[in-house]
Design a protein that fits this description.
The protein has 309 residues and is mainly α. The protein has helices spanning 4-11, 14-35, 43-53, 60-72, 76-101, 112-116, 118-137, 144-169, 179-204, 209-233, 235-238, 245-252, 257-276, 281-296, 302-308; strands at 105-106, 109-110. The protein is built from 15 helices and two strands. It has a two-stranded antiparallel ribbon with strand order 1-2. Strand 1 (105-106) and strand 2 (109-110) form a beta hairpin. The protein starts with a helix and ends with a helix.
Amino acid sequence: MPDFDQIMEAFMSSSVLNDRSNIDHMLFECERILSNCMSQQYESLSAAWAHHFSAKGKRSRMRLALSTSSNLGLTSQQSECLAIACELVHQASLIHDDLMDADASRNGKATVWRKYGQATAVCLGDALLVEAMFQLSCTPDISAVTRQALIRLVRDSVQAAAEGQIDDCDISKLHNFSYSDYCTAVQNKSGALFAMPAIGAMLVKHSDNSEIERAIAGFSEFGIAYQLLDDWKDREVDKDRRLNGYWLLDRTNPDAAEVSLRTAVIKHLDTADKILSTLPHAIYQSFSEIRDEMLLKLPELKTDLEVVN
């Protein structure tokens, strides 16, 4: 993996900035479509969605879909349909996750279940998943076979994420999970939804199965690193309530859990990098953007990266 200075140099290069301008334009269009995806005819759903969507997130998965699609040469409309579908699935998972975790706020705003009730949260999440399928059905200039493959991808990704979420919330497993068990659960919960944007673009581009399998493996590793960092942030809230990588590592190394977690993050990022670097540059470049963004926000990892390299 590159060191911190190399990341900054690449990030500021004119070609990268031009690519970002094009992606930002598509991102704006995606935001516009997403903000209006719940019919005003259904007042409860549309009000709850407007409230939730106004709590701006990073849109990492949507930007990953746009970046990969653009790099692979998909049209703007194809890129946007895929990106919107991926973001809808992610937002549905957040709404359901907030309900299951009884979280009161997200990005500074009350969660849907807290403001509008549990029933509204369940129904809105369900409606968003169906809307994701509709958006995929609108993808232009693809064959029926490709359209079916995209729908199958979303179905499989949602099922994997649901299985991971079940493990995440099963308190009976809390003190019996091994690190290997944790990785499997997180690959399902987080890895599947990070792989989906890239795999979707690859399906439209008719990438071969071996490349798709490597992409799944690489983004699964990235998903573990992402979840470990998220677990570190939520360690106090999650303690004795749900599966959390920090406390799992604390159980095996109580005097150095944070060091163990940081080492694990670097290991999984490095594995993801090695796998995804074997794919065409257009795909690896999209991964490197979200990897570098993570590292730019965590400069304290610089020393560890230099050790790995």
